[in-house]
């Protein structure tokens, strides 16, 4: 496959991009943040190049897991619009799980997806990319079905380290002094993926405008002309979609403002489309590869084609909700796999229409050797009236073609319990947001349930689960112990009136207490609270004391309520619920609604019954008519002759 032919198929992002950000809110997007308690993240290039504001992102919390085939509401906000006449955009949702087949096929021996324990950038060196460091922090343990409503045993010890591969915060080995050694830096893409990228010749058919690249390999792009490194991602793969060499990312959905392109996207996705690579990484086409002794191999993910649909419509210069009044979202049905090392990525490709991005190639680039100007150049002077009077446009061609992204922390996808059928629907109910008021959290958001309006049917399951962190900026407003995220669920007796809480018709009493106190013993909480009140009159001290269960301070930042099955007991009801902690003026409120929809609404049931009765009578009449025809002298025939029809 020749380079220029590849370009004709893969010029998606070669369009005039403008400045904008994207932030993922569920699952929690990290925006290269980890556990630093700063307002801004420590390292803009820790795992990837987000192109976002350094204030964005949520701090690390114990990892979550989701059941295979369950429905997960992916939420994000993007700046500068989508699906409106002023912009062109695509939102591309992808996931990556550490797959042993891919790892072996492509020789990605260093691949070990993890969040890491420091904010450093992983080394671009196969010998040090998996460095170990003493793990002096403590993290909460979690696991599937960890909450037992019968015994309220969802007590998570924050002093016990994680086990297994949940976040790679695990003792890989021990130091001579007996310290636990764990992986130091995080990792998404493997070292070998980046190493091939920095050695491989770039696609020279791409439009660069007047950007002068610092090299001729795939780490140098119009958006990244200096070849800067962010984690171990490949800049050319990041900036262009669909990509023409192997990528670890599996496509979930392509949301576009031009659905006429959907056949192109679904057919070109590496989910089911074959791409090639050379065993000698320097070569990017078959002729150069085989001529120089390499093997031109193929790769595909052998997955279903991605979904393709219209983007949620948002307005320009607005990092907020879409036209529905809610955050942009996509309901992802998780794949049927069993893997504890997965990451989700949301890419936001935003453009204007200053030139034809689908028909502009390298022949429109500047060429200084021939004194040739680019089709578009930096900060040009224009004469709008053609009379010599000039105005200057603020244009940065490195940012004219722009890709933004955010990624989740590591999560797991696990098999369903044997008691849950493959066709049974599982809905994930999570919490988004961080501690602080709207100004302090921006461009993240305040607390809310996701989804906060959930409609289910009898036989469905809801998986109640959320995570948070203890390293929010210390000055951020909120209830309970400083810097901490905590959320609970209490169902309301009186609709949305939070003063009428304690409804126990959705859960059993034990389960209701488990979700309200997050696994802490309510009786012990009452004893501890009474002791606190007796020891001081300072309400702030009481509110922030680590033993104050009323403020959820003693609970873990991670909660797993397990699967709850919707039964006939729930049928036709609407349930309102809230978090008691995040309900003051600073954080407004954190409420949600669960509606159990009957299999058919009442009017539809009546219609079905009436229609069935009419059909039955019609069949009876038809039978009598046929009988009468073949038995004209019978009683039935005589009756039919007397009827008006």
Determine the fraction of residues in helical runs and give it as a percent range: 10-25%
**How many beta-strand elements?**
27
Query: Could you say which overall geometry the principal axes of the C-alpha atoms support?
Result: globular
Averaged pLDDT: 85
Biggest β-sheet: count, sense, barrel? 8 strands, mixed
Strand fraction band? 15-25%
Give the number of helices: 13
Distance between the termini: 74 Å
Q: What would you report as the Rg, rounded to the nearest angstrom?
A: 29 Å
* Alpha-beta classification: alpha+beta
| Unreliable residue runs | 1-19, 137-168
Structural descriptors:
645 residues; alpha+beta; eight-stranded mixed β-sheet; five-stranded mixed β-sheet; 27 strands; 18% helix; 22% strand; disordered N terminus
């Amino acid at each position: 496959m020749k380079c220029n032919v590849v370009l004709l198929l893969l010029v998606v992002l070669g369009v005039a991009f403008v400045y904008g950000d994207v932030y993922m809110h569920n699952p929690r997007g990290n925006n290269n943040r980890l556990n630093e308690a700063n307002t801004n993240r420590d390292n803009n290039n820790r795992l990837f190049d987000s192109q976002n504001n350094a204030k964005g992102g949520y701090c690390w919390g114990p990892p979550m897991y989701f059941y295979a085939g369950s429905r997960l509401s992916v939420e994000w906000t993007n700046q500068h619009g989508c699906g409106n006449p002023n912009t062109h955009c695509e939102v591309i949702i992808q996931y990556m799980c550490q797959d042993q087949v891919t790892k072996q096929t492509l020789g990605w021996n260093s691949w070990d997806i993890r969040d890491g324990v420091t904010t450093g950038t992983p080394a671009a060196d196969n010998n040090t990319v998996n460095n170990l460091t003493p793990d002096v922090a403590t993290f909460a343990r979690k696991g599937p079905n960890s909450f037992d409503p019968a015994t309220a045993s969802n007590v998570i010890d924050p002093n016990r380290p994680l086990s297994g591969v949940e976040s790679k915060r695990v003792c890989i080995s021990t130091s001579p002094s007996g310290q636990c050694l764990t992986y130091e830096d995080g990792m998404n893409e493997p070292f070998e993926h980046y190493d091939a990228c920095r050695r491989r010749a770039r696609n020279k058919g791409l439009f660069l405008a007047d950007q002068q690249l610092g090299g001729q390999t795939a780490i140098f792009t119009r958006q990244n002309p200096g070849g800067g490194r962010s984690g171990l991602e490949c800049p050319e793969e990041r900036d262009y979609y669909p990509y023409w060499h192997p990528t670890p990312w599996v496509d979930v959905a392509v949301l576009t403002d031009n659905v006429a392109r959907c056949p192109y996207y679904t057919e070109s996705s590496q989910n089911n489309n074959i791409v090639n690579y050379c065993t000698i990484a320097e070569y990017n086409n078959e002729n150069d590869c085989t001529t120089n002794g390499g093997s031109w191999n193929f790769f595909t993910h052998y997955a279903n084609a991605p979904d393709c649909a219209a983007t949620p419509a948002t307005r320009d210069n607005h990092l907020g909700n879409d036209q529905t009044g809610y955050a942009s979202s996509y309901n992802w049905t998780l794949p049927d796999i069993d893997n504890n090392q997965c990451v989700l990525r949301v890419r936001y490709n935003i453009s204007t229409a200053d030139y034809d991005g689908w028909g502009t190639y390298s022949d429109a680039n500047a060429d200084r050797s021939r004194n040739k100007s680019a089709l578009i150049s930096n900060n040009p002077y224009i004469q709008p009236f053609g009379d010599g009077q000039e105005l200057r446009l603020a244009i940065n061609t490195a940012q004219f073609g722009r890709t933004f992204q955010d990624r989740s922390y590591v999560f797991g996808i696990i098999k369903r319990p044997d008691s849950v059928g493959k066709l049974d629907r599982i809905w994930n109910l999570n919490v988004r947001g961080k501690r602080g008021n709207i100004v302090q959290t921006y461009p993240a958001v305040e607390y809310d349930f996701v989804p906060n309006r959930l409609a289910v049917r009898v036989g469905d399951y809801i998986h109640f689960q959320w995570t948070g962190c203890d390293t929010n900026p210390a000055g951020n407003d909120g209830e309970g112990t400083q810097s901490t995220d905590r959320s609970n669920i209490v169902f309301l007796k009186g609709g949305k009136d939070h003063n009428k809480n304690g409804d126990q018709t959705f859960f059993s009493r034990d389960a209701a207490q488990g979700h309200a106190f997050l696994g802490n013993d309510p009786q012990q909480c009452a004893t501890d609270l009474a002791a606190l009140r007796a020891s001081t009159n300072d309400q702030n001290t009481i509110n922030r004391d680590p033993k104050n269960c009323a403020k959820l301070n003693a609970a873990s930042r991670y909660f797993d309520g397990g699967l709850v099955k919707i039964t006939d007991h729930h049928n036709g009801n609407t349930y309102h619920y809230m978090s008691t902690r995040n309900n003051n003026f600073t954080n407004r409120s954190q409420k949600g609604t669960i509606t159990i929809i009957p299999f058919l609404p009442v009017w539809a049931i009546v219609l079905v019954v009436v229609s069935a009765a009419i059909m039955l009578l019609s069949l009876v009449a038809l039978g009598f008519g046929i009988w009468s025809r073949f038995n004209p002298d019978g009683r039935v025939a005589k009756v039919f002759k007397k009827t008006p029809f």
